[in-house]
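Researcher: I'd like a structural prediction for the single chain below. Treat it as a standalone chain; there are no partners to consider.
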Amino acid sequence: MRKTERNFTNKVLESKRGDVQAVKSKIKSSVMAVAFLFAATMPLTMAVSSRNVQAAVTQQKQIQTVNQKVKTNTSKAIKTITPKKVTSATMIKAYKKYLRKNVSNKKYYAIVNIGDNNAPVLLRGTQGAGNDKTGRHYTGCQIYYYKNGKVVKMDTFKDGGRWLLLSKKDGQNYLTNGGSDFSIRICVKNGNLYRYQYYNNHNWKKNPENKWATSIVKMNGKVIKNMGYLDGTLYRRHTGYYTYLKNPEISFTKNVK
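Model: Treating it as a single chain, here is the predicted structure.
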């Protein structure tokens, strides 16, 4: 009986060892399969990573190329739309066209260089006409300037007591007029009309009754500087900064259509 039990027990143990061996064999097979799969996929993974890096580099180069083209095209576009400098010839041509279309052939005009950097300005005589050996002159006029592609009226000058003249200060030419105790200087700067008005109030500090006008600078009719009342010395100092041109008289020409 004991021998029979031992035989049965041995058979059970052998069966168990077989099951364990089978399990070990399966585990070993699984490990080898995983190792084989890893070894097989590793080159593919490395290849994919390499391709991704190459693609990223290529894309970066393409972006740099596009940015450079955009920068170049933008630079060209900016240069293309840069406005050209208006020449004196263009301005004079515009004035002549304006005269033909808008001014009677009985009127007189003059083109003088009192604009930006002494650019041409159109004057149309309005009052105080007179003649001498140098031509026809006026004491007053309308002032026109070519700006933004159009001829526009800037101001009307009617304060002169003498024929209109040309003077200069610091390289800039001025339309000039005045009388024994006042002086008016007009020019165009940056497309705006400046009017410098100086008045001689003599010794107004001793005799306040001699005051009659403050000396001012106007831009388009608005006072931008007030120099107050000038006595004779200060008046001559301010007006002395201006010098007359060699041929200061402004000669007006009859408009011909």
